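Structure in, sequence out. Go:
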């Protein structure tokens, strides 16, 4: 009898341990099944009154008009459409582009959930392996030299122009039609000076994100190159951000394709991609390249979000180079 009781106790203990292990695994690997879950909380910023919010929208509108230099539409988009043999854009192109946008189903399938679990599980190893590979030697130049499909008739959008290092290289290599977004006025001044004689470059003093907003940031890093909404610190420098989808349809994206969208904006890549992936407009970008700023202190769940973004992006695009959690570029699947 005593021996039987010992056996029962062992089974009970074993069963409890199994349940505990399963609970821990499921808790650790539980993942949001939609982009709507675990969104970033608004960063700690100076609160804007209703009056300030109206002023914020006014500032955004002003920054949308300024690069037009008196024209009714973006000169760069006009040049691009002309090069494609299309008629010059009219104001109705914006309404048409907006009317073509539809919400996408961002609920992850079981297969995609498994992809995310695997991605999260191997994240630490993947990052530790890819970081020295990408930043060692001249490998990181791939983010500019990789895009040999670009030419003077191509349309390139860069989010996070900084002081123009990438833009200068892209222009020298391919001379495409070029649209740059940069939220810091200090850098915009440098960019405008750098490209003052380039009629195929438009510079917008805006950031890209999930919503229209004005936030206060600190100037950080060498020459403010690491300034980020997600630093986790209060700041005193205002930057104006526009919702990604709205900016794109405002340019007419949806009625035409963009050859390359490249993003290096200290964390805004997450919000911008999540926003674009929520709509069918994501299919209008032939190539998407971004830097993954997954170590920012103010970024909520960067690993999980990165893994969900790549799972959803894999529906329409495939990677052409990938240094996980550092830099990568994806191409639409219908393009060889």
């Amino acid at each position: 009898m005593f021996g039987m009781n010992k056996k029962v106790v062992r089974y009970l203990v074993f069963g409890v341990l199994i349940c505990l292990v399963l609970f821990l695994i499921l808790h650790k690997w539980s993942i949001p099944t939609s982009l709507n879950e675990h969104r970033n909380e608004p960063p700690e910023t100076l609160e804007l009154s209703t009056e300030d919010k109206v002023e914020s929208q006014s500032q955004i509108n002003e920054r949308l008009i300024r690069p037009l230099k008196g024209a009714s539409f973006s000169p760069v988009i006009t040049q691009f459409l002309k090069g494609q043999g299309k008629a010059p854009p009219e104001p109705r192109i914006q309404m048409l582009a907006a009317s073509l946008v539809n919400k996408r189903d961002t609920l992850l399938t079981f297969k995609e959930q498994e992809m995310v679990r695997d991605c999260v599980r191997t994240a630490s190893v993947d990052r530790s392996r890819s970081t020295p590979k990408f930043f060692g030697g001249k490998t990181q130049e791939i983010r500019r030299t990789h895009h040999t499909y670009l030419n003077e008739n191509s349309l390139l959008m860069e989010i996070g122009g900084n002081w123009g290092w990438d833009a200068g290289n892209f222009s020298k290599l391919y001379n495409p039609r070029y649209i740059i977004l940069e939220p810091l006025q200090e850098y915009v001044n440098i960019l405008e000076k750098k490209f003052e004689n380039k009629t195929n470059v438009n510079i917008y003093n805006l950031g890209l994100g999930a919503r229209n907003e004005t936030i206060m940031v600190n100037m950080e890093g060498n020459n403010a190159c690491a300034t980020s909404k997600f630093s986790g610190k209060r700041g005193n420098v205002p930057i104006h951000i526009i919702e990604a989808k709205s900016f794109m349809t405002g340019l007419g994206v949806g009625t035409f394709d963009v050859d390359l969208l490249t993003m290096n904006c200290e964390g805004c890549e997450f919000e911008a991609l999540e926003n674009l992936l929520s709509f069918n407009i994501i299919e209008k970008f032939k190539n998407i390249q971004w830097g993954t700023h997954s170590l920012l202190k103010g970024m909520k769940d960067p690993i999980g979000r990165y893994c969900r973004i790549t799972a959803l992006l894999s529906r329409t695009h495939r990677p052409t180079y990938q240094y996980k959690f550092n830099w990568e570029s994806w191409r639409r699947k219908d393009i060889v």
